[in-house]
Amino acid sequence: MSKERVRDPRDVLIQQKYFCLRPRPLEQWLWKQGVSASAERVFWLHWQQGMRRRDWCSEIALKHVADQCDLDVSSVTRAYQHLTKLGLLRRQDPGRDPARPFARAIAITEVRVPLELVKELHRYSDRSCSKQSSASNPIVAQAPKPLESSQRMDAAVFRDPFEGMNGRDRMRALSHLINLMSSRERQQYDEALRANTSQLVFDGHTKFTASQRETVLQFLAIVGRPPTDREGRAAVESVTSSSRANLPPRRLSAFELARIRREIQFLGVCTNTDDLLREVVWSVEEGALARFTSLHAIRIALKKIREKAWTRPNRMPPNWRRALADSNSHPLKAAHSDICRTA
After folding, report:
1. Is the pLDDT of residue 45 over 90?
2. Residue 72 pLDDT
3. 218-222 — which CB contacts under 8 Å span 24+ positions?
4. How many structural domains is the chain composed of?
């Protein structure tokens, strides 16, 4: 008999084989909605692929979804209809693919979190962490020192309370503070933003710590009542400039690109869809339409194309392309920007 210790197959599954982790709040929400087992298989398949791509979009043929979920095609179709109705999936036909003119285009599927779950997300407990880091508790780590008096607003109050954070962490930290507010505190917070004041009286049983209360007051002081002295104005300008500089560059998702391509092909105003698509993408991401939100910018571009008023962006580099992290069949693959040498 061999003396070698036989490994536990459970350890082999955990340490060597692939497995997926499902967010507990989302899984419980699916159970409460009575989602069928077949629909859950389809949803978690797209969730896993979207998480691996990091844009929450996936392109999987209907037949491949049926094979991987061990379902028939009709069951997958019904699952798509049910999940779309619940707001868990959003699908978009990207239009005809020039590389595969005789094949049916694969729809872009985006996984989403329902609004009902987003509103109740703060009620679920967070994972415990052994090391207290700024990523796990950004508010406490970046909270400023308490002021001598909450009613005294000098130049020190206008220091950026979220200094050192990028744009995404700033929004996450501010959202965390807003979720801690009671209904009365939230009403005062909205009124302070509307009236450009920094007055906010916290409840006696408030959920805020002392450092978090000072963070809220400093944020309202910066947004609502800018100082008139030179030092205070410089502090406010530095906060605004740093916030804009830390914002990540805009990148349209695969779902948005598929929608633009489909609309351009539907309008039929241009024979070369790829060039027109590149012009719209550059204008929305880096050009004149970058100052609008993504949805608003896309609608403006499509309206101009529909009215035949679209022209090539003036500052767009020649032969501009952008690399995408999706399938190789996409027309914007292997992208790079070229410098205009004729100007």
Report:
1. yes
2. 93
3. 218/144, 218/157, 218/158, 218/159, 218/161, 219/161, 219/162, 219/174, 220/189, 220/192, 220/193, 221/153, 221/157, 221/158, 222/158, 222/160, 222/161
4. 3
Strand segments, DSSP code E, in the chain are 57-58, 89-92, 108-111
Full residue range of the structural domain in which residue 99 is found:
14-119
Query: Is residue 129, in this structure, part of any structural domain at all?
Result: no
Q: Sort 324 into a burial class: Cβ within 10 Å, 0-12 / 13-18 / 19+.
A: buried
Instruction: Please give the mean pLDDT across all residues of the chain.
Output: 74
Domain assignment of residue 128, yes or no: no
105/196 same-domain check: no
| Closest C-alpha among 297, 309, 307, 318 to residue 250 | 297
Contacts of 330 (CB under 8 A, 6+ apart): 254, 257, 324
| 247 vs 167: CA distance, rounded Å | 5
Adjacent-strand bridge partners of 90: 110
Domain shared by 225 and 241, yes or no:
yes
Domain match, 36 and 79 both: yes
Distance of CA 98 to the CA centre of its chain: 30
Model confidence at 134: pLDDT above 60: no
Q: What b/e readout covers 121-131, taking b as 16+ CB neighbours within 10 angstroms?
A: eeeeeeeeeee
Task: Name the residue with tokens 């094949």.
Answer: 103
Among the candidates 246, 261, 291, a domain finishes at: 246
Domain boundary among the residues 92, 119, 146 is at 119
Phi, then psi, of 90 in degrees rounded to 5: -135, 125
pLDDT grade for 159, boundaries at 50, 70 and 90: low
User: What amino acid occupies position 174?
Assistant: L
d(CA 250, CA 246): 12
What is the predicted pLDDT for the residue at 175? 81
Tell me the range of 23-27, 173-177, 307-311 where mean pLDDT is highest: 23-27
| 125 located within any domain | no
118: left (phi over 0), alpha (psi -120 to 50) or beta: alpha
Which CATH number covers residue 28?
1.10.10.10
Task: Tell me, yes or no, whether 186 and 242 share the same domain.
Answer: yes
124 inside domain: no
- Comparing CA positions, the residue from 283, 252, 248 lying closest to residue 94 is 252
